[in-house]
Amino acid sequence: MKSRSGAGGLPRRSAAKAGSFYAGLAALALAELALPRVLKMDHAHFWFEDLPASGSMYGLAACVVIIVASKLLGKLWLTRPENYYDS
User: What is the rounded radius of gyration, in angstroms, for the C-alpha atoms of the chain?
Assistant: First the structure.
């Protein structure tokens, strides 16, 4: 019996959709790098705004800070000892 699965065990149609999704993400990343250089967008207010994909790097750093802060908050404030409800 022939297998109908594609890459990663996904059905062929789903694998094709996943491939086009990742190709779209790659095109979007390249566009973010190229378009500000080609279109000569607004001048930067700070030196790091001239770096390629500085908005994406800022967003990634902010996301990491939010995750680390929430994990720290959960450990220090929200969690209780194992025997908290045992009297």
Answer: 23
Question: In the beta sheet, which residues pair with residue 5?
Answer: 11
On whether the CB atoms of residues 23 and 15 are closer than 8 A, the answer is no
Q: How many residues does the chain have?
A: 87
Helix axes 12-39, 54-73, angle to 10 degrees: 120
DSSP character string of 2-54: ---B-GGG-BHHHHHHHHHHHHHHHHHHHHHHHHHHHHT-PPPSSGGGGSTTH
Read off the pLDDT of residues 13-49 as tens digits, 9 standing for 90 and up: 777 778 889 999 999 988 887 887 777 767 778 887 7
Q: Is the dihedral of CA 57, 59, 63, 65 positive or negative?
A: positive
